[in-house]
């Protein structure tokens, strides 16, 4: 019983991958795009899926693994639902991005070796530049940019997102 | 809308120009303004115009119903949200939703200027104001070719681009010019690649044009990875069609039928705007099979990068477009001979391509009338750092750094003192006060040890530690080194270690010699541009700020008071109540004392963690920045 359930989820897992592969016509040169879409789906690149993609595209798993580990965007570990990217580009750096990063990490209670909160809600990353230098120091939560951050604004922003997430959760339960 | 021929397009554009409404309200919705609430300002305008429109409709409908547009970036992000009123060209700064009613009431209805929202400057007692955009100091010295449409058109509307003579250059060349003639025109214009190196664009095209191949490719490099640079982003987001038209022209010139735009993953808005623009252009017959009835066919695919700085290097970028690890390879063969999948490929930067339609429409001589003889045209700069006006500016080549920093960028914020300007990102160099009168063009900057780079310009003031800046850039390049060649992989790591020793106050005099030596080796022996230019920040800062390096190494002093290791925590015996709180929190047990006697910090053991400073309830712990005069001899 337990086993067949697992199998079922596995099949469902690969179904999505198949759809993505199909969309890119199993084209080797689309590998980066394929991995991006997979990561969007699963929030990270599970190892068994990398092997599966390799077989489907007719390349070695090492090749796919090589690409997946080369680019900073890809993660082989599960990421949080919301991705916080603190910009540490030149302009942000000279205007105090380290304070912003510290404030974010402290607010989320992350340990020094952690980037993702245990509830898988947030992952914190630093990026070299998000091109919002005029708003330095800046950070991005998913696709939204927040500029001219300081400790207080970090706390307000994160608090409102946590509230938003709680609201969503409540909705799910009430349905 | 579909244009089967050049004539149809011209007719449509002529019609479009007649129907254009002269009364316009332009609200900047670039990233900068958006974050400051431009969306709400837009909404408020929409509401109020609709509301008021009813009342005044009888009199002058067109003038009282200005179209509210979502424009790209106007460049002056610091003063956002920006609102521009046409046809007068009035510019309002820092507009909030609650200001909109006043603008509608006074400016749109009564042609009055709302003084408090215009740009003002205090000159002694007198307050001077410049209500018109063209007079404001930030814009006065600018010259817009690349950003000609940014801030004036809705980037999601093809009509807006067409009304500004969009796609006419493409129509002209496919119907009247041979590919040879196009390459000649671009060569004559003297346009140089805006991605950093400054290689003549016409020559690059010619190399690819003469090669015979069944398939050629054109790649637009939108992998703007330099921290502190956002010019290409603004063009892709604010005027995507100009890039697409430039690509189609380049494709025609070299004989390519397929183009790729490589955009960084960090720019989702650019990707969505480009996608929209591509779809619109295809539908209108401006991309795809037999463009405008000619026998030229060309289409473009977007490739999203996945976060690797080295992919800005052309051979690495090609590997990434092919879906591989983005690692560079030795040249020759150059991509113009053997690029994507072994086919001749031309790679041009976004800004370069955005120049192309203007050059072909107005001619090479027109383009040469701007800038300097060896660097014609303009350059966009992303101004950031410790300046008053951060944002995007396009200036003619040959402008001095002084004009750029003090006139356009408004000088140093908070009346600080100019210390250095970092130009060209992690591949560029730091220039100082003595270079302020240097002309900004490829050759002058190169002679001073910096590079034009893609156009990031970060201004540093007296509170910035120059060694820390060098360390920051080295952290970046070390992190982004792809690891293929030894000089870059090992060299950048070694350079970073030495710089860390310096900022941590553990370096000796010999380390400085080693720093320079390793930097030279990395510069000479690395495979690609990333490694070859990575030591530039170190070498230029070391050359122009040797004293500051020596302060860190010999005196263990950080004059800018930035490097944490160069400060001491001391206990003020007058204020200390010997409560022992500090001794309890000290992680290295370097604070000692007895009851009723002031405590003492053992400086030789202190790690400068600051725990005691935060714990002391009596503010008895003072941060003492070491000064050069009383530096400890060791």
Largest sheet of chain B: 5 strands, mixed
| CATH H-tier superfamily of the largest domain in chain A | Glutaredoxin
What's the Cα radius of gyration of chain A? 19 Å
- Amount of helix of chain B: 40-55%
CATH first level of the largest domain in chain B: Alpha Beta
Q: Give start-end ranges of low-pLDDT stretches of chain A.
A: none
Distance from first to last alpha carbon of chain A? 28 Å
Name the shape of chain B in a single word. globular
Ranges of chain B where pLDDT stays below 50 over 5 or more residues in a row are 54-67
Q: Structural class of chain A, please?
A: alpha+beta
Report the sheet-strand fraction of chain A. Answer: 5-15%
Total of DSSP H or I helical runs spanning 4+ residues of chain A: 7
CATH architecture title of the largest domain in chain A: 3-Layer(aba) Sandwich
The total beta strand count of chain B reads 19
Order of helices and strands of chain A: HHHHEHHEEEH
Helical stretch tally of chain B? 26
| Distance between the amino and carboxyl termini of chain B | 78 Å
What strand order characterises the main sheet of chain A? Answer: 2-1-3-4
């Amino acid at each position: 019983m337990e086993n067949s359930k697992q199998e079922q989820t596995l099949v469902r897992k690969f179904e999505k991958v198949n759809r993505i592969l199909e969309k890119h016509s199993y084209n080797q040169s689309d590998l980066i795009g394929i991995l991006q879409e997979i990561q969007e789906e699963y929030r990270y690149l599970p190892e068994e899926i990398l092997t599966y993609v390799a077989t489907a595209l007719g390349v070695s798993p090492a090749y796919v693994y090589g690409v997946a580990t080369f680019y900073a965007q890809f993660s082989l570990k599960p990421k949080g639902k919301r991705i916080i990217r603190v910009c540490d580009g030149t302009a942000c750096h000279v205007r105090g991005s380290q304070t912003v990063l510290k404030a974010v990490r402290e607010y989320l209670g992350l340990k020094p070796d952690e980037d993702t909160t245990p509830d898988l809600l947030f992952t914190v990353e630093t990026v070299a530049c998000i091109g919002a230098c005029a708003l330095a120091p800046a950070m991005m939560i998913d696709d939204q940019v927040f500029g001219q951050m300081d400790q207080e604004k970090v706390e307000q922003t994160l608090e409102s997102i946590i509230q938003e997430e709680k609201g969503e959760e409540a909705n799910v339960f009430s349905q | 809308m579909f244009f089967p021929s050049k004539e149809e397009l011209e007719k449509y554009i002529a019609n479009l120009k007649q129907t254009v409404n002269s009364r316009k309200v332009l609200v900047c919705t670039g990233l900068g303004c958006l974050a400051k609430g431009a969306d709400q300002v837009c909404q408020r305008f929409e509401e109020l115009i609709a509301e008021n429109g009813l009342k005044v409709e009888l009199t002058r409908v067109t003038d009282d119903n200005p179209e509210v547009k979502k424009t790209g970036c106007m460049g002056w992000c610091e003063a956002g949200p920006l609102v521009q009123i046409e046809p007068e060209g009035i510019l309002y700064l820092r507009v909030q939703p609650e200001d909109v009613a006043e603008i509608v009431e006074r400016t749109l209805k009564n042609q009055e200027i709302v003084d408090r929202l215009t740009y003002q400057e205090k000159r002694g007692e007198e307050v001077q104001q410049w209500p018109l955009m063209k007079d404001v100091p930030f814009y006065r010295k600018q010259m817009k070719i690349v950003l000609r449409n940014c801030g004036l058109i809705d980037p999601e509307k093809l009509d807006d681009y067409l009304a500004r003579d969009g796609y006419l250059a493409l129509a002209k060349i496919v119907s009247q010019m041979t590919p040879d003639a196009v390459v000649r025109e671009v060569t004559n214009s003297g346009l140089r690649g805006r991605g950093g190196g400054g290689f003549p664009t016409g020559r690059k095209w010619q190399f690819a044009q003469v090669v015979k191949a069944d398939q050629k490719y054109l790649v637009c490099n939108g992998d703007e990875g330099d921290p502190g640079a956002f010019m290409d982003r603004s063009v892709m987001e604010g005027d995507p069609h100009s890039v697409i038209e430039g690509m189609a022209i380049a494709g025609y010139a070299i004989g390519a039928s397929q183009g790729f735009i490589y955009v960084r993953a960090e720019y989702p808005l650019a990707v969505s705007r480009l996608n929209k623009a591509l779809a619109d252009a295809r539908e209108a017959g401006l991309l795809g099979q037999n463009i405008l009835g000619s026998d030229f066919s060309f289409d473009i695919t977007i490739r999203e990068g996945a976060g690797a700085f080295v992919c800005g290097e052309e051979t690495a970028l090609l590997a990434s477009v092919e879906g591989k690890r983005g690692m560079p390879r030795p040249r020759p063969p150059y991509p113009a001979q053997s690029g994507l999948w072994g086919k001749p490929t031309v790679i041009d930067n976004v800004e370069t391509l955005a120049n192309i339609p203007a050059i072909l429409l107005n001619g090479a001589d027109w383009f040469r009338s701007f800038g300097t003889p060896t660097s014609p045209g303009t350059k966009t700069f992303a101004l950031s750092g410790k300046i008053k006006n951060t944002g995007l500016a396009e200036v003619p080549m040959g402008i001095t750094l002084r004009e750029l920093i003090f006139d356009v960028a408004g000088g140093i914020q908070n009346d600080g003192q100019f210390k250095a300007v970092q130009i060209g990102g992690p591949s560029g160099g730091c220039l100082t006060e003595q270079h302020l009168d240097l002309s900004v063009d490829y050759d002058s900057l190169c002679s001073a040890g910096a590079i034009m780079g893609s156009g990031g310009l970060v201004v540093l003031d007296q509170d910035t530690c120059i060694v820390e800046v060098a360390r920051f850039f080295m952290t970046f390049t070390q992190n982004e080194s792809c690891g293929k060649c030894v000089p870059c992989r090992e060299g950048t790591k070694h350079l970073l270690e030495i710089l860390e020793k310096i900022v941590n106050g553990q370096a000796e005099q010999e380390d400085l010699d080693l720093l320079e030596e390793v930097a030279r080796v990395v510069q000479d022996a690395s495979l690609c541009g990333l490694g070859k230019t990575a030591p530039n920040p170190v070498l230029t800062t070391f050359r122009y700020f040797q004293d500051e390096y020596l302060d860190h190494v010999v005196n263990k002093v950080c004059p800018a008071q930035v490097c944490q290791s160069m400060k001491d925590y001391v206990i003020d015996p007058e204020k200390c109540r010997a409560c022992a709180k500090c001794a309890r929190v000290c992680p290295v047990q370097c604070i000692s004392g007895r009851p009723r006697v002031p405590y003492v910090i053992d400086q030789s053991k202190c790690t400068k963690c600051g725990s005691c400073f935060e714990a002391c309830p009596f503010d008895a712990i003072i941060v003492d920045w070491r000064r050069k005069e009383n530096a400890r001899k060791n």
